[in-house]
Write a structure and sequence with these properties.
- There is one protein chain.
- The chain is α/β, with parallel strands linked by helices and about 425 residues long.
- The protein has 14 helices and 14 strands.
- Helix 2 packs across helix 3, helix 7 packs antiparallel against helix 10 and helix 11 runs antiparallel to helix 12.
């Protein structure tokens, strides 16, 4: 039990600002790693307390320092009670969390199948309802839209950039992406390398997973032979961050669409989380990193060793701007138009198969545009076969109706 002498340390958690009818706005803490499904909604008065939970101060010291900032008395037992609630929710670095972490990681490592973590939440969990939604509300609506662009390049579809926003909000973008896949995927393709964003911190550049991915349509089997070959060529431990796959939606949503579209057609997946976090943080070029090059070269070798049999997918959103993501105010119309111009310039580099230019263009304003799909899109561009041509199918800004925050996303198909 936590007492006044305990030094609470908050774990790395995702924090987003959301509207609240009582407090105006609250900060919601949630775990992207999959150790707990609990969330904590913090009103403004608690932020001076929680922000001091760094492991350096006792609960008594936090209460004293927060009282100075707030200009009112903060009883120590309030801090102790809050720390105990966060600890019970597995949000603190503590003995309780470490014991739970070891158990949960062991259970995931021992499992042959990764469960469909977001079924029944981010998309229908019931097979018939999901089938109808993906068909009618995603792909059919996208197919009915009149294209306002040049004719698509010739050839079979060999690569795809699809959103990883939830399918409720990203229905049209998913529809354009997977509608193109349904029309132009070669019948010989039986392996999908899927790059996704890791929304939880990663220690290594990339993370593999050897598990089948379950969906309401059944499980997609992992291509363990290909995965083992890629792992053997990696000059780092590609399973060091395997646990990040447990609740990561950027891959799960792609597998759901593949299983829906391909039905009984046999295929296997190579799930890869793309971090490259150190390069993103420092604005450095991954092409100069021997470890990143060796990993990506091994995937390119897989593509070249199975001509016509491998397609590459990146589950990747673009910008994240507005109050929910740390900006003071929502984007006005002129700012939204400027954002679209910048996003489209980045996507033009991707469509031109210019991986280095894409990385440089996105990295230069990553702190403000917050493009979370930088890693997976870059990895896709580095591993697609030569002679590939890209086609931007759809661009969209999804605007939060409550606070005006924006997530932008796109659908690009690559043909060769």
């Amino acid at each position: 039990m936590i007492d006044a002498s305990f030094r609470p340390a908050l774990r790395p958690l995702e924090s987003i600002a959301v509207p609240d009818p009582r407090h105006g706005r609250v900060i919601v803490l949630r775990d992207t790693q999959g150790f707990t499904a609990a969330q904590a909604a913090l009103p403004p008065a608690l932020l001076p307390i929680v922000s001091r939970m760094t492991g350096r101060r006792t609960c008594e010291e936090i209460a004293r320092d927060a009282a100075v900032e707030l200009g009112c008395d903060v009883p120590t037992d309030v801090v102790v009670r809050l720390a105990n609630e966060l600890d019970d929710a597995l949000m603190l670095e503590s003995e309780k969390f470490r014991a739970a972490k070891a158990r949960i990681e062991r259970e995931f490592a021992d499992a042959d199948v990764r469960p469909a973590s977001h079924a029944g939440g981010a998309y229908h969990g019931e097979r018939a309802k999901l089938h109808a939604y993906l068909d009618k509300d995603c792909i059919a609506i996208a197919n009915a839209a009149k294209p306002n662009r040049a004719k698509a390049p010739d050839g079979a579809l060999v690569g795809l950039i699809a959103p990883h926003i939830d399918p409720w909000r990203g229905a049209l973008g998913y529809g354009h992406a997977y509608g193109a896949l349904a029309k132009r995927l070669a019948p010989t393709v039986d392996t999908f390398v899927i790059f996704g964003t890791s929304h939880a911190p990663m220690r290594q550049h990339f993370a593999l997973c050897r598990k089948a991915f379950d969906t309401p349509f059944g499980a997609a089997e992992a291509d363990v032979d290909a995965i083992d070959a890629i792992a053997a060529a990696a000059p780092f431990d590609p399973y060091a961050d395997q646990f990040n796959h447990k609740r990561e939606h950027s891959l799960e949503f792609q597998v759901v669409f593949l299983k829906h579209l391909l039905g009984a057609r046999p295929f296997r997946i190579v799930p890869v989380l793309a971090g490259l976090g150190e390069h993103q943080a420092h604005g450095t070029d991954p092409a100069k990193d021997d470890h990143a090059n060796a990993f990506l070269d091994s995937i390119r070798a897989l593509v070249e060793s199975r001509p016509g049999r491998v397609a590459i997918i990146a589950g990747a959103d673009m910008a994240h701007v507005g109050p929910r993501f740390g900006d003071e105010v929502p984007f006005a119309e002129d700012a939204r138009r400027a954002l679209e111009t910048t996003d489209r310039a980045s996507l033009a580099h991707a469509a031109a198969m210019a991986g280095g230019e894409f990385w440089e263009h996105v990295a230069r304003d990553l702190d403000t545009r917050r493009v979370c799909g930088l890693g997976p899109i870059y990895a896709l561009l580095r591993t697609l076969p030569g002679g590939t041509r890209g086609d931007l199918l759809h661009y969209e800004q999804t605007v939060d109706k409550d606070d005006g925050s924006i997530v932008s996303h796109a659908a690009l198909a690559f043909y060769g």
